[in-house]
Amino acid sequence: MSTFSSFILEKLAVPDMNLIYYIVLAYAVAGALQSGFNQWRTSEYPQARRAMTGLGILLGAQIFMFIVSALGWQGVLDSRAILPPLDRAYLVFGIIWITWLYAFPEPSRISDTAATLLSLLLIVTLALSLLFWQNTINTSGYEITYNETNADFFWQVGSLFLALIGMAVIFLRKPNGMWYGIVLLGIGSLGHIGHLLFPIVGEYSGVVRLAYMAAYPILYTLPQRFAVNTVPTQKPETKVSAPAKSKEPRVHGERRKYSTDPKTFHAMLALAAESTPAKVSQAVTRAIAQTMLSDLCFLIYLTDNNNQMVIAGGYDLIREDILEGGSLNKNNIPMLANSIQRGRPLRMPASSTSADVKGLSDILGLTNPGHLLNVPILTPDKEALGSILLLSPYSDRAWTAEDQAFLANIAASLVPVIRKSQKLSRLELQNDQARLKIGELEGRVEELSKQLDTAKTEASKINTTEYASILTAQEESQRIIEQLQVENAELRSAKPVASAASIISATTAAASSSGTSQAEENLRTALLELAHVKNELTESQMKLEELKKGHATTKSTEQAEVIASISQELRQPLSSVIGYTDLLLGESVGILGALQRKFVERVKSSTERIHSLIDDMIHITTLETELNDLKTEAVDLNMVIDNVMSYTSSQVRDKNISMHLDLPKALAPIQADREALQQILIHLLQNAGAATPFEGTIRLKVQTRTEDGLDFIMIQVTDSGVGIPAEDLSRVFTRLYRADNVLIQGVGDTGIGLSIAKTLTEAHHGRIWVESELGVGSTFSVLLPISGETIVDNKKVKGRN
Question: Terminus-to-terminus CA distance in the chain, angstroms?
Answer without folding.
Answer: 103
